[in-house]
Fold Triosephosphate isomerase.
Amino acid sequence: MSAAIKPLVAGNWKMNGLKAAASELEALIGGYDADLASKVDSMICPPATLVSQFAQTAGGSAVAIGAQDCHVNGSGAHTGDLSAEMFADAGASAIIVGHSERRADHGESNKVVKAKAEAVWAQDLVAIICVGETEGERKSGETLDVIKAQLAGSIPSGATAANSVIAYEPVWAIGTGLTPTADDVAEVHACMREELSKAFGDEGSSMRLLYGGSVKPGNASELMGVANVDGALVGGASLKAADFLGIMAAYK
Ligand SMILES: O=C[C@H](O)COP(=O)(O)O
């Protein structure tokens, strides 16, 4: 937790969810009362096929809708790709870029992630920029160097607390049920805060830093209580409204 930064709990549904899953979004909206909304922001990033529908369902509620990736260009001959402009048009307010599954499955480099963040900003949307070390990198003691290099390479100049959110997701903790210790999370988040403050001044000092990787209702209080952790990027446990609300309850 950082003083004076309103936390964000964002759900990344990844490649999960059909139209009927709107019932979970409706349940989330129903359980996310004004008191909770005053303490923590909430966002769901469904698959691209549901962004428009979810934005309509969430319209007028305090739950924001985001997307999971975008192309670096606004339009053009890129079969199967989707642009930040399209997601803005569909009602998204943020787009995740640089998730480790994109970096691994699609070979996305820091340079590509940076260009995607710029494409997100060009539509006045928020870029949720992900970084994180692999298991091998942690075991060989390279974690902080990897994170620093990813931050330096993936975040464009001009990043502000309003246009960017940074998510630390250790690759080995994603979908595995494993989590780093609170001390390990604190070490990485302190390092990120220092790097961002050096690079972006006051904007870096007040940018939201999310932790992601096997966040569940049972471990949310401990993880969200770590210094410089300003919320969570949640995968599996965001698919059910009850679990997602259980994670946000860490801020009650
Ligand atoms: O974007 C979300 C993360 O990859 C975390 O996924 P997970 O909560 O299923 O471990």
Observations:
- The CA atoms of residues 48 and 185 lie 30 Å apart.
- The pocket of glyceraldehyde-3-phosphate is lined by residues 12, 99, 169, 174-175, 212-215, 233-237 (CB under 6 Å).
- The two ends are 13 Å apart (CA to CA).
